[in-house]
Amino acid sequence: MSSTLQTPKAAKPNEDADALIERFGSTRKSRFSRHVILCVIGLVMMYPLLWLVSSSLKPNGLIFEDLSLWPAEWSPSNYTDGWTALEYDFGIYFSNSIIIVVLSIIGNLFSCSLAAYGFARLNFTGRKLFFALMLGTMMLPGHVLLIPQYILFAKLGWLNTYYPLLVPNFLATNAFYIFLMVQFMRSLPQELDDAARIDGCGPFRTFWSIILPLCRPAFATTAIFTFISVWNEFFGPLLYLTDPELYTVPLALRQFIDSEGQSQWGQMFAMSVLSLAPIIGFFIAGQKYLVKGIATTGLK
Amino acid sequence: MTTTSTETAVMPGAVAPPAPQSQRRRRARKDRAGYLFLLPWFIGMLFTVVPFFASLYLAFTDYNLLNPPKWIGLENFADMFRDPVLLKSLQVTFVYTFVSVPLSLAAALGVAMILNRGIRGLPWYRAVFYLPSLLGASVAVVLLWRYVFGFDGIVNAFLGWFGIDAISWTSDPDYALTTLIILHIWTFGSPMVIFLAGLRQIPVMYYEAAAVDGASKWRRFRSITLPLLSPIIFFNLIQSLIASFQTFTQGFVMNNGGGGPANSTLFYNLYLYQQGFNQFNMGYASAMAWTLLVIIAVFTAITFFTAKYWVNYDS
C-alpha cells in the first residue's frame, strides 16, 4: 500500500515516450550533438563553482595570476586562517546558522502540517475563504509587510534576537509549504480518514497516527526547501541582527569585504566553499524531493 | 488554483451518526476541530494582515521611529516622483526584470526541451543545471560573481582569448547590471525543472500524429508544445516577475550595500532598505513599498488578462 501512496501526483513519466520521440528526427548524430551542447552548457555553468573551490586552495598571490583549475601551489591554510579571520571564529557563525535552520524546519513542519491538514481534510465554516486568503499571501510580496513588522518586533524588544527570524515559522506564515502539503494530503485516499473514524479516532488522532506518517515525502521536501532558503537568507538577519556574535554565515561572509579590504581572497573563498557545502550536500541527498516538490507546485 | 471541491462530497455522513445529535452541534464540533488545526495559521495571519494595513497607513505619514507618525497625505508619493534616485532604482529594476526574466525562461525551456527527448544521463544533467538555482541568491555566490567578473577574473581572461579587451564589469556603470543579469540567467534551473515535468505530460501521440502528417520540428513546437505548455509558462512567468521585482541581495552584496557604481545596481528594494533603515524615513519607505506592490499587481494583472489569448486550458 505504502508504495502507491508515496507518489501522490504520479507524474507519469512516459518512459516509452522517450523511446518513441527518439525515433523521429533523431539520428545517432543528432543525439551526439545534443550531448555536446548539454556538456558545454553544463561546463560553463559549473566553471565558476569549480574555480571557487580551486581558488580557495591557492595562495592569495596566485588566485588571479594563474587561472587554471589545478592549483600550482597548494594553500590549505586558507581554511584554517579563514576560520578565525573575523571577530569571532566561523564555528560561532556556523552554529548560529544551524540553530536558526533547525528551529525553522521544526517550526515549518509543525505549523504548516497542522494548517494543511485543516485545509485538506476537515470541513468547517469559512474553509474556502481562508484557503483563498492563504493562497493570496503566497503571492504577496514580503516587502510590503517589512516596515510595520520591523516596528512591531522593535516594540516587542526582539531586535538583535532570533525571534523575528524564528517565530513566524512557528505560525505557518509560509504559505508555499502549506500549499505543498495540502496538495499531498489531498492525494491520500479519503477512506483512510473514514476508517479511522469508524475505529473511534478523533481528528487529532487521525492526523497524528494516520496522515502524518504518510506525509513523510512532503515533509522531506518542506525540510529541504526550508533548509536551503533559511541557510541562504540574508535580508532578515541583516535587518534584525546587529551584534556580530549573533551573525549567521552569510552575514559573516560579507564582513570579509568590509574588514579585510580586498586582499584575503583565499580565505574568503575558503569560507564561501564551506558555506555552500551544506546546500550542495542537502541537494545531493534530497534531489528527488526537491524536483518533485517544485514540479507538483508548478503543475498544480 | 486548485479545485477545493473534491473531498466535500465524501466527508459528511459516511458513518451513521452514533446518537441523535443535533445537526448544529455536530457542525460546531467540526468547526472547532478545524479552527484548532488552523490556530497557528490564524495567529500568523495577524502578523500579515495587521502589517499590511499598517504599512498602507504609514505610507501617508512622516515617521522616523522616534516621534509618532505625522499624517502628510500624498506628500510621500509626490516626493517619489521628484526623487531622481528613486526613478533610477525603478529603471534598474525594470531593466533587470524585463531582460533577465525572458532570457532565463527561454534558456529554461530550451534546455528542458533538449533534456526531454529521452536522453541518457538525464538525472546528471538535471542536477548540474538545477544546482545553480539553489545557490544564486547566496552571499557566497554573489561574492564569487564579483571576482569571476573582476578585472583579473576568468571572464575577462576568456574574452582575452578572442582578442577582446578586458572590461571592468563590476566598476563600470554600463556593465555592472549586466553581470547580475547573467547571474539571474545562471539560475534558470528551477523553471527548467518545472518545464521538464510539464513536457513529460504532453501525450507523445500528438507528436507522432504530427510527424505522420509531415509537420516540421518548428511546427510541432509551435502547434503542440507551446500551447500545451502555456499554463506552465504562465506560472513560471508570474513567479519570476514577482521574485525579480523584489531583488535585493544581489545588489546589496555586489557593491557593499551601496548599489553602485553610479547607482547602476541600486535595485528598488535596496533603495527602500536604505530609506527605511539607514535614513529611517519609514513613511517614505512604506510609500515605496506600496508603489512597488501596485506595480507588481499591475504586471500580474496584465499577465492574467492577456492569458486568455495565449494560455490554453482546454486539456
UniProtKB/TrEMBL annotation, chain A:
Annotated membrane topology: Multi-pass membrane protein
TM segment ranges: 36-54, 92-117, 129-153, 165-185, 206-231, 265-285
Gene Ontology annotations of biological process type: transmembrane transport
Domain of life: Bacteria
Subcellular location: Cell membrane
Span of domain ABC transmembrane type-1: 94-286
The keyword Transferase is annotated on this UniProt entry: no
GO cellular component: plasma membrane
Keyword terms: Cell membrane, Membrane, Transmembrane, Transmembrane helix, Transport
Family: Belongs to the binding-protein-dependent transport system permease family.
UniProt name for this protein: Carbohydrate ABC transporter permease
Source organism of the structure: Glycomyces luteolus
UniProtKB/TrEMBL annotation, chain B:
Chain spans, region Disordered: 1-26
A Pfam family annotated for this UniProt entry: BPD_transp_1
GO biological process: transmembrane transport
Similarity comment text for this entry: Belongs to the binding-protein-dependent transport system permease family.
Listed GO CC annotations: plasma membrane
UniProt name for this protein: Sugar ABC transporter permease
Organism, scientific name: Glycomyces luteolus
UniProt KW Membrane keyword: yes
Domain ABC transmembrane type-1: 90-303
Chain ranges passing through the membrane: 33-60, 94-115, 127-148, 175-199, 226-245, 287-311
Cited Gene3D superfamilies: MetI-like
Keyword list, A-Z: Cell membrane, Membrane, Transmembrane, Transmembrane helix, Transport
InterPro entries: ABC_transporter_permease, MetI-like, MetI-like_sf
Membrane topology category: Multi-pass membrane protein
Cell location: Cell membrane
Main location: membrane
The UniProt record lists the keyword Glycoprotein: no
